[in-house]
Amino acid sequence: MKTSKIKNIFISAFVALIIGCVCYPLSIYYFYDVKKLENHYPEFILVKGEVESYTFKKKRPPYWVSLSEISTYGKWAIILSEDWAFYQHQGIDLSQLKIALLESINEKKVVRGASTISQQMVKNIYLDHSRSYLRKLKELIITYKVEKHISKQRILEVYLNSIEYGPGVWGIRNASYHYFKKHPSKINPREASFLAMMLPSPKRYYESFKKKRLTPFAEKRVHITLEKLKIGRIISEDELYLNKVIRMNWENY
Prior knowledge:
57% of the residues lie in helices and 8% in strands. It has helices at 2-31, 36-39, 72-82, 94-107, 117-126, 133-149, 152-162, 172-180, 189-198, 207-210, 216-231, 237-245, and strands at 41-47, 50-57, 164-166, 169-170. The N and C termini lie far apart (82 Å). It has a single domain (32-252), classed as Biosynthetic peptidoglycan transglycosylase-like (Penicillin binding protein transpeptidase fold, Orthogonal Bundle), CATH 1.10.3810.10. The protein contains 12 helices and 4 strands. The protein is globular, with a radius of gyration of 21 Å. Strands 1-2 form a two-stranded antiparallel sheet. Strands 3-4 form a two-stranded antiparallel ribbon. It is mainly alpha-helical and 253 residues long. The longest helix has 30 residues, at 2-31.
């Protein structure tokens, strides 16, 4: 009798687990209305200089720029720096995700997310920035839905207009004016590479701008992005050389 009771409890728990594994992802998938991204603008709500959340509006925010208003260098420096395979994958880079998962298991904590541009956009717009497997699961599910309904161009546009480029500097238009006093359509390869350099840790890397000169680490990262622009045939060999020897002199801006 006792064995039968334990068996029933085990079966009930197993069934509940299976149902949970199926229903929870489905609830996330259907809860988020990602189709709004196509014809609405996610506008950030700032609290003490930090983005607390986003609200969707039909009217274009004043800081927003379309992809056509961003220089080719401005777009590709960030794509090649953050997510080389952006136009090839379906929102999730499985090879990078596998590496990140193995590293996290070895360290017994979430080390890095291996996030694509699509995933980063989803995290910025819909989720918090906590490092947990549950948050990562939500991110993957929502990203899958976004990629099914939203074009790559729109995903990239939302991403560039919603990411942080420094303390209180949100969106590529604000960043372009903040650092270079120019519209993002006018930024050159070196300036674009600087903006791409900021993205992994915008508050930390802001030090270069505060001191009005690139730190050796920042200079190296800018050069790496310039090399990627050359490999991606966005700039020529001559342009690579010229942009490497030019010094970032903010006194000119």
